[in-house]
Amino acid sequence: MTTPFWSVKFQKSVSPKGVDMQNKVQATPRLYKEVASKLLQEIQSGNYAVGARLPAERDLAVKYDVSRPVIREAIIALEVQGLVDVRVGSGVYVHSATGQKMIPAGDVSAIELTEARLLVESEVAALAASQITDDELAELEALVRKIEQENKTAGGKEEADADFHLAIAKATKNSALVESVERLWELRNTSREAALLHEKARHANIKPVVDEHTAILHALQERDPAAARAAMRAHLLQVLDSLLFATEQRAVDEARRSMQAKRERYSQLTA
Ligand SMILES: [Zn+2]
Predict the structure, then answer these.
(1) Which of 45, 70, 147, 193 gives 160 a disulfide partner, CB atoms 3.0 to 4.6 angstroms apart?
(2) Residue 239 CA to ligand 1 centre (angstroms)
(3) What is the 65 CA–ligand 1 centroid distance (Å)?
(4) Residue-wise pLDDT tens digits, 32-90
(5) CA distances from 167 to 138, 156, 172, 184, 208 (A)
(6) Domains annotated on the chain, with CATH
């Protein structure tokens, strides 16, 4: 495959020893999709009939030789499709054997999504720099302060970040660009993988960086398209870096859980 345009920067900042991080990212298993497909086959073949309860998470983990979080993700994927009902404290029940398309088209990876944001939003910022009004600048300034406040609240919401990026899109006065940026943020919220990775990044205490947003604001205040483009690009490269960090963390966690599942299975065999 071709080398993504940001990988040079990424390898420099995260992998000084020149390890091929790109391959690691590509190798991150999207096992849950495979498991979800297998479960769907079982449901459609009648092995798990409508109304029946699926085996427990730990048993499914052993059966498919994956970690329990992978099973959980697969169940969520089936739930989104209306194939199963998750009843808290009771279990997972087959609701229907006819789902829609297995994996929604919107299920892009967090890395793909941020790469697209990097391309689109850098140019959006450049255009906004030449169009933005004083009122819109005041709004952005308030949003930077809101990002700062949200960062201080433990487990708080992260609405100001989205609002900041959408406000810049609106400042272009180009409704196609506004729709594009809105859609990218929507994908971030609807893609399971993106949501999980962002959650992981949040747990690792990676928060929207105020300085990066301030730099974008300053460039827009100067009405300097080149500086705005560069500041937005720098910001989203940092987001990419933090996601790649979270991806690695996740791969390590997965490997650990998979080992644990194998151990459990072995101890069951030898018990
Ligand atoms: Zn941001």
Answers:
(1) 147
(2) 8
(3) 38
(4) 888 888 898 888 888 888 899 999 989 999 999 998 888 888 887 787 777 888 877 78
(5) 11, 21, 9, 14, 16
(6) 28-103 (1.10.10.10), 110-253 (1.20.120.530)
